[in-house]
Amino acid sequence: MNPSKEYKEELNQIIDLNNHAHNLKLDVWKEHVVFTGHWWIGVILTIVPWILWIFFRKKESTNRLLFVGFFVMILSIILDFLGTKLGLWYYYYDLIPFIPAFMPWDITLIPLSVMFLIEYRPQINPIIKAFIFSVVIAFVVEPLFVWISLYQPVTWRHYYSFPIFFLIYLISHFLSKQRNFKMVT
Question: Distance between CA atoms of 33 and 37, rounded to whole angstroms?
């Protein structure tokens, strides 16, 4: 069944408005964001933690940790994308203006934090680690990002993040314990 002519016209108008808004955002980003201190903080937060991880990780756990890291990365990107598109929060200093989510957060800080906690003191109960992870992210890091003007919640409250991060950590811990990982020589 073909869409109606009216539907196509309305959708085309929405696409045109979206493209216009995106062009405006790109102009503002070029003038007020790129190469600012906040932008450089984002670049550093995206790259430096990965470099440190490469040097300080347990080499024999690389495949397992990357599997978990990519799971967390994909989930973080999806949830962050939904949150920004639904207007629950926004970011002032995008690394790349075409991506609505905050890259340092989604592709570096959250996945590496989970990977570190999985690797650090593996004998500690994962529920305790999930609790600590969730408290730090929801009640320390998110407010810090608001304070330094990287992140602005609109209708989102920090305590909403707690159960989400708690579940992300527990699922990640479960995935990291799977026996399907072999050392590649």
Answer: 9
Report the predicted TM-score, pTM, of the whole model to 2 decimal places. Answer: 0.87
Cα 49 from Cα 47, distance rounded (Å)? 6
Token pair 């999806």 in the structure block, residue = 78
Provide the sign of the torsion angle of the four alpha carbons 72, 78, 82, 84, taken in this order.
Answer: positive
- Answer whether 42's CB lies under 8 Å from 148's CB: no
Q: Which residue is listed with tokens 């680690």?
A: 129
One-letter identity of residue 41: I
The conformation of residue 9, written as its DSSP 8-state character, comes to H
Nearest to 132 by CA among 104, 101, 173: 173
171-176 contact pairs (CB < 8 A, 24+)? 171/71, 172/68, 172/71, 172/72, 172/114, 172/118, 173/118, 173/126, 173/129, 173/130, 175/67, 175/68, 175/71, 176/64, 176/65, 176/67, 176/68, 176/118
Q: What are phi and psi of 53, to 5 degrees?
A: -60, -40
68-111: pLDDT as tens digits: 999 999 999 999 999 999 999 999 888 998 877 788 999 999 99
